[in-house]
User: Which sequence fits this backbone?
């Protein structure tokens, strides 16, 4: 399992909000363990809510990262609150809408909405249906963990993120 | 990869469970999180608590409870390859909608090298969360019924 | 929220809600004398969460409630060697604490002055005083 939980940035308003999507596919290994068939029931693959929180953290983390052109390392420090009411199965798409709530030198808070795409059964496209919300608190680790032995380079925003930023035409925001 | 974040159960009671998640560089996702600084992702600590809670609550009859809610859950010390996450989850109470409110925490054990030191164990994760039954919805909107 | 009409009791109720959400604490444990780091088990990241929630709770369109870094929970309290001696705050150190935290009652801490007990001055009541002073300023 790789550690990228968003596939594409679909909307961005600098300093305010960022939206991303994640396709849920049976080709992803972890879905086969969550949940496998057993003596009582058939297999029931669903996207784990913990990984939806990570999807939101990556979406919101990029938003927070853009505030200072990805110069600072941003890490998830607290799940302020999260609620997922409907499980998502393979074949569906998850949407993460993150909005900046507050920003200080020490960290930032974001609010987020999680939706799933619901297809129409006729030939018309479909619509997003809200399935939950995830509110997070990020820490700027250079500010809060000074003295700890961290690499100097910004390891948080790796090449994977740069690829996603570039695909969305947002690499201009990185140094 | 196998999505299994509980390596072993150290103790299990009806309302309390203690488990261990060993962290090893052989785990694939650590190559991405982060490429030059591998640490156990915070949400994987959450998943380890969720899987522990699922085992603890299985005696209530549903072996496939999932994470429905998280409340004020914070991350502290980082957990690196060679460390172990020592997890304790307790059942707090049943919520109004019949779900299971739990409280969990994870301590870092810094490898066997320090097993006999008196170094204080650091908390890597602590918070409350709710386990609920699966709720699968159709990927399509039900076609309007014609009467 | 009409902040002009807020009594200390109103402020306490709002602070109690903030702490309940930020710390997952039970309301009955959030008494005026409860200490944040001791009784309510708050850690440094919670301080940031509390600051953000207080800002949101007490802001009005007419008067934003903005807390600058270190205003509620000061940092670098030991950066000046003249402030601390043998693990205790000196007279100069106590003056600095009172000046930087006018919302805190130091009468109890004054007796001991231990650096490692300074976090105990952050009580629920100190936050209520902080908000009250700030709303009236």
Assistant:
């Amino acid at each position: 399992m790789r550690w990228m939980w968003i596939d594409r940035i679909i909307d961005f308003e600098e300093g305010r909000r960022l939206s991303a999507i994640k396709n849920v596919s049976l080709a992803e290994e972890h879905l086969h363990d969550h949940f496998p068939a057993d003596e009582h029931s058939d297999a029931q693959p669903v996207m784990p809510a913990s990984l939806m929180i990570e999807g939101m953290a990556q979406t919101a983390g990029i938003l927070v990262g853009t505030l200072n052109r990805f110069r600072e390392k941003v890490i998830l420090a607290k799940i302020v609150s999260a609620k997922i009411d409907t499980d998502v199965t393979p074949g569906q798409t998850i949407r993460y809408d993150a909005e900046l709530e507050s920003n200080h030198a020490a960290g930032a808070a974001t609010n987020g909405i999680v939706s799933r795409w619901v297809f129409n059964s006729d030939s018309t496209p479909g619509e997003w249906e809200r399935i939950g919300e995830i509110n997070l608190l990020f820490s700027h680790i250079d500010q809060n963990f000074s003295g700890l032995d961290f690499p100097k380079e910004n390891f948080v925003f790796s090449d994977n993120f740069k690829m996603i930023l570039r695909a969305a035409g947002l690499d201009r925001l990185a140094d | 990869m196998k999505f299994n974040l509980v390596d072993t159960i150290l103790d299990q009671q009806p309302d309390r469970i203690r488990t261990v998640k060993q962290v090893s560089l052989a785990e694939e996702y650590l190559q991405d999180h982060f490429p030059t600084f591998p640490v156990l992702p915070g949400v994987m600590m959450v998943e380890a608590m969720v899987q522990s809670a699922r085992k603890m609550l299985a005696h209530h009859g549903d072996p496939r409870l999932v994470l429905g809610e998280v409340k004020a859950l914070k991350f502290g010390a980082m957990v690196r390859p060679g460390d172990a996450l020592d997890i304790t989850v307790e059942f707090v109470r049943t919520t109004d909608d019949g779900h299971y409110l739990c409280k969990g925490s994870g301590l870092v054990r810094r490898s066997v090298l320090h097993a006999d030191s008196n170094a204080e164990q650091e908390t890597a994760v602590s918070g409350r969360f709710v386990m609920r039954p699966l709720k699968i919805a159709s990927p399509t909107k039900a076609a309007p019924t014609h009467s | 929220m009409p902040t002009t009409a807020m009594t200390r009791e109103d402020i306490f109720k709002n602070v109690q809600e903030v702490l309940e959400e930020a710390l997952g604490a039970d309301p009955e444990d959030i008494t005026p004398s409860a200490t944040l780091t001791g009784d309510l088990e708050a850690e440094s990241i919670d301080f940031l969460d509390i600051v953000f929630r207080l800002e949101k709770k007490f802001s009005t369109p007419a008067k934003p409630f903005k807390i600058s870094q270190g205003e509620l929970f000061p940092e670098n309290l030991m950066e000046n060697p003249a402030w601390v001696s043998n693990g205790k705050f000196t007279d100069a150190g106590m003056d600095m604490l009172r000046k930087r935290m006018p919302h805190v009652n130091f009468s109890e801490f004054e007796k001991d002055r231990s650096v490692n007990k300074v976090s105990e001055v952050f009580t629920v009541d100190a936050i209520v005083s902080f908000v009250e002073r700030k709303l009236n300023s």
